[in-house]
Amino acid sequence: DRGGSGRRGWARMRPALAHFSHPGTHTVTFSLTALSLVVVSSLGWSGFDLLRKVLVERIPPMALLLALTVGQIPLFAAWFWWQPTEVEPAYWLPALASVGLNVMANTALIVAMKRSPLFVTIPLLSLIPALTTLLAVPLLGEIPGWRRSSGILLVVAGALLLNLGRVPGRGFLRALVQEPGSLLMLVVAVAWSLALPLDKLALRAANGAFHGLFLTFGVSVGVLGVMAFRRELGQIGTVRRAPGLAVLAVAVSSLALGFQLLAIEIVWVGLVETLKRGIGNFMALVWGRFLLGEAVTAWSVTAVLLMAIGVGLAAL
Length: 316
Prior knowledge:
The chain is mostly helical.
């Protein structure tokens, strides 16, 4: 009984992953294993960001997004074959909403990148940990204490400083107001901040294997529809320009998403997003220095230290 044994194995693992107090108190403490899930997922997303940065120079963004999500489907299908589950009716509304938000966010991100310089719009994504934490309060009842709230704010502040350090001489706020892509990037930040709490709601009625399969399939269909509407289906063949890197990106992104789904089942979504952004920004600095030859400034070091303190406060 592969399905029953898989579910029983996961049930036995849960107590070791995290310890919850009475549901009415809305408090949670990390175990080492739970923290490991978040860290592995965060490192996976960081590696995926690096691969995507290289791939997008050879493959149009929407074609790349389609190829990567389609490539993830067989991997999540294999996971679901190993660990099937019954899907409760409560699953479908948050799951469909998450798919729609992810398609909208990815499309808006690409349009925003075309309309405005990245140094103006990307800092808005630094708001995601705070927005996710706020949205998780009414949706999930996850209310962080003052220490974790302070940690989240420090991560947001550090990420903003890190990104604003790349802004040229003109004022950031003035550029933000003037740039046509800024509002779209704010839409991206809100959409991704809302998608994670919805994913957790969906996981209460299914499991990570099924939800990963549904997400990747749904986003693939949505992206295909957007490309058809924009008459960009001819770009799909460009994936052949870098097949090896594309396969590696599929594997890394599947690992990152899979561990993220396991993590948000047992860890507050605001904490998951905080650690993901903090670790991701730190690793981006490392990748930039050692692989891309980018300079490390006192400004960036200060920003990373702020994020490190914030991550520590959030994870305690």
